[in-house]
Amino acid sequence: MSDTNGYGGAHLLIAFLAGTVAGAAVAYLTAPGSGRETRESLKGWAGEVRGKAVRVPHAVREAYVKASEAAKTAFVEALREAASDEKAG
Question: Exposure string (b/e) for 19-54, b if CB count within 10 Å is 16 or more?
Answer without folding.
Answer: eeeeeeeeeeeeeeeeeeeeeeeeeeeeeeeeeeee
